[in-house]
Automatic annotation (TrEMBL):
A GO MF label: ATP hydrolysis activity
KW Oxidoreductase (keyword) present: no
Domain ABC transporter intervals: 5-244, 261-491
Designated name of the protein: ABC transporter ATP-binding protein
One GO term of the biological process aspect: transmembrane transport
Keyword ATP-binding: yes
PROSITE patterns: ABC_TRANSPORTER_1 (PS00211), ABC_TRANSPORTER_2 (PS50893)
Organism lineage: Bacteria, Pseudomonadati, Pseudomonadota, Gammaproteobacteria, Enterobacterales
UniProt xrefs under SMART domains: AAA
Amino acid sequence: MLWVVQVSGLTIRNPQGDAVLQDINFELATGGSLALIGGSGAGKSTLGRALLGDLTSGQRHAGGQIICCGCEVLQATPRQLRQLRFRHTAWLGQDPAQELTPGMSVRRQLNEFHHGDASAIREMLSSLGLPQDDAFLQRFPHQLSGGQCRRVALARVLLKRPQLLILDEPFAGLDRRHREQMMAELRQLQRQYRFALLLIGHQLNAVADIAQRMLVLHNGQQLEYGDTRQLFATPKSPLLQAWLSHVTCSRPVTTEGEPLLRVTHWHPGDSRLTALPALSFALHPGQCLAVTGPSGIGKSTLARSLAGLNPPHQGAITLDDRPLASDVRRRSREQQRAIALVPQDPAHSLHPLRSVGRQLQQALDRYRLSHPGSVAALLHQVGLPGDYARRLPRELSGGEQQRVALARALAGQPSVLICDEVTSALDVLSARTILQLLSQLLAQGMAVLFITHDLPAARQICTAGLHLSGGDADLGAVFDKEICDDFNMRD
C-alpha cells in the first residue's frame, strides 16, 4: 500500500509549553479518505496545517514524525516545504472567501492552476454544480454566495491535481442538496485522480458518507481512530457517543403582540437574483423565523439588506412601525443598535490584527454600553473564557470566531438578531450551546431571523419559516413535511 501521509507520536506545544496536540498517530493511503472530528479548539486545523509544516507562530514540534508525500515535514528545508505545498498538496480552509483574491474574477483565479485550458475549467465547474457561462466566470468573489465561493475555491485547488487534498469544514454553509452533490463529485474525482482526502469537520452524516476512516480529537488528544462505520456502530469515547446521540433543545413559545419588524414586498433589485421573489413577512418579539433555501437564492442578501448594508432595495422595512432607511448610515443610533447581524463568515468580519477584547470593547463603546467586566460578560454569554479577550482572531478556531462574532452582535443589546448560518462552522456540542443561548434570548423577548441550511437546527428553536425556492416564498411552519421534502434537508 502506498502511503501519502504517515504520522507517528506527533506532539506540538504552544509558547506556554502546553500540548496543542499530544501523541497523534494515523496513516492515509493513496485514494483513501480520513476525517478529523472534534469540537471547536480540539486541534483539527492545527493537525491539518502541521502536515504541511505550517505551525502557528510560537508553536513548536515537541516529538514524533510526519511524512507527507515522501517529505519528512518536520525536518524539511523551506524549499522542500514550498514544493510540498504548491506541487503535491492542496488546502482549502474554513473561510472560502479568504481562499479567493477579492480583485480577481472567477476565470482568472481558476487559470492560476490550469493556464488557458477552458474545457478543463468548465468541466470542473460542471462537476461541482457551478455555472460555466461567461457571465459567471466574470464575477468577483463578493458577487458570489458563500456556497458558491466555497465551490469555486474547491475547483481552484482541484485543478492542481494534488496527491493530498485537505478540506477544512468543506460543507459548512451548503444546503444538503449541494452538500450531497459535492460529496458525490468528490468521490468521483477521487476515484478518477486517486488523491488522498483529509476532511476536517463536524458534520457526522457527511463524514459517514465519504470518509473511510475517522480520527476523533478532544483538547489535542486522540480519543478514537479506525474504520468510520465501526466507530459509528460502537463509539467508545463519551464525546463521540454524545455527538451520535439525539440532542434536542426546547423550542421557545412565540411572544404575541404587534410585529417588531415588518417587511413588505422587499426585493434587492439585483438582476442576478431573478429567482428571488418579492418578500413580505413580519417578526414578533420572542419569535424565531427560519429563512431557508438553496445556496445563491439571496438569503444573505436579505440579511445584509435588513441590517442596512446592502442598499438600495425595493419595498419597505419598518421597525416598531417606523420606516427603516435602506442605508444604515441614515438610520438613527437607536435603529442601528436595534438590529444586529451575525455574518456567515466570521473570519471576514473580525479585524485580524485586533484582539477579541478590543473588538468587543469597541462595539460596547459605540453604543455607550460599556462598564467594568462587560467584555468578560459577553464572552461568558457565548461560552468562551474571559482570557480569550487577549487573543487575536487567527488564534481561534472557526467555531470560536463565530461565537466572538455573536458576542459582538449582542454588545448593542439588539431587539432583532439576524443570524446568517451561525451554526454552520460549529461542531454538534458547540452548535447546541449557541442554540441554547438563542433560546434564552428568545425567552427574553428578542426576535431572531435564523438563516440556515440546517433544518434540524431550525426545528429546535424556530416556530415558523420562510422557504425560498424557484421563484416562490413559502411562509409557514418550518416543520411541514412538504418543505422538508422540497428542500431535501432531513438528516
